[in-house]
Amino acid sequence: MRPWVRPRGAAWALVATLTLGGPAWGSASMGRVEGAASAGLPQQATAVAAAPRHFPSDDSLLALIRGRVEEGRATGIVLGVLEADGTRRVVAYGDAGPGARPLGPESVFEIGSITKVFTGILLADMAARGEVSLEGPAQAYEHEGISLPARDGREITLLDLATHRSGLPRLPTNLSLSNPANPYATYTVEQLHEFLSEHTLRRAVGAQYEYSNLATGLLGHLLANAAGVDYESLVRARILEPLGMTSTGFALMPEMRERLALGHDQAGNVVPNWDIPTLAGAGALRSNMNDMLTFLEANVGEPRGDLEEAMRLSHQPRQEAGGTMSVGLNWHIRAVGDDVIVWHNGGTGGYRTFLGFDPARAVGAVVLTNSAHGADDIGFHLVNPSLGLAPAPRERVEVEVPRAVLERYVGAYRLGPNFIIEVTLDGARLSVQATGQPKFPIFPESETEFFLRVVEAQITFVVENGEVTSLILHQGGADQTATKIR
After folding, report:
1. pTM of full prediction above 0.85
2. Residue 294's closest CA among 308, 282, 312?
């Protein structure tokens, strides 16, 4: 195994939405999740020692991330790959931030919604031990006197929470967005209970996939209740310590802080780290490449013990999640022809991360970035080279648009059952605000086409017979239409 590469690199970056995981911009998320359908996973690779090298050379890996940084689509990237024979390779390029140690395999990142798969594995492990019931009511694990919402006589189960089919929204409505620099820090268990006790589900439980940070955060909370410990102690005892993941945790202990890669926004500014005490199971973990490759290795190949058996259980597709995607216990499974990729990504204020693997080939990749630029395409491409890389964004130039034209775009646009994009006119500038997210300005490049600067996303307003009927959100290579409702 060649040593990791520590080159010099330029510093650029992106600013985050309120993101821990979930589909695209417009999702107060901890990372981005795409849409499934896979009847089952291929069998695990067996004769892994004889497998040929899957990934390109270190020089090629380094060139891949160097290009991303030098194009201005990342501040710094640490990339790790795991071959079928257990060989690990790590390359790093870019800027860790002012005063920070150079990027490398020990650099610490916030991994955002990749935390969710740890929560899914905990659920699988506790179900296998008989400590909780996958399909029994989640209410059984809540504190006495706190009622979880139900609908039409159907109670939410732990499985509903882990497959994003609980009917709960992406975020609780009583989560204050007054501090988008650290939006989850002050949200308390008491506020969570208040929300749950008063919330009315807007759709039937189990009826539809809807990515939810709230659901996974609640799942972590309930599993901790069932175990009689706090969530961090549970994940540490059941996963981190058994795997020897000594540089992974919630709190930035002194030795982790010394190796922290500072997060950056889109403009290249250092941004605060996020604290997620109550919804920890949705996105609170911090880690480094060495630990993430250890975690990845435990998820591939033949299972070696009860924990790894629980991991394999968590990978199994449970429900469709739209398009070529299905969902297991918080893992997403992407069908690529006859192949599949089991994966999740993450994002907090100044970080974007990806972990994915091909269970049949027993190979996987981890991408850790310390900016709000995502690099999911790099991870997907490396795991399955038939998937292409995202093209470099073109330079966008703002033009002047008459106020009368801007005024007609003001209104509300429905992108999903519980997902609205509000367009407002603030002075001479249009702004957009998606459900559960801060407000962001948009900039015209023509009378109907606008772009965001906080993320790589664009909006086209559709005008028919002189009336604005919808907008199209262009992001991550996908186009989504939101119908104007007022």
Report:
1. no
2. 308
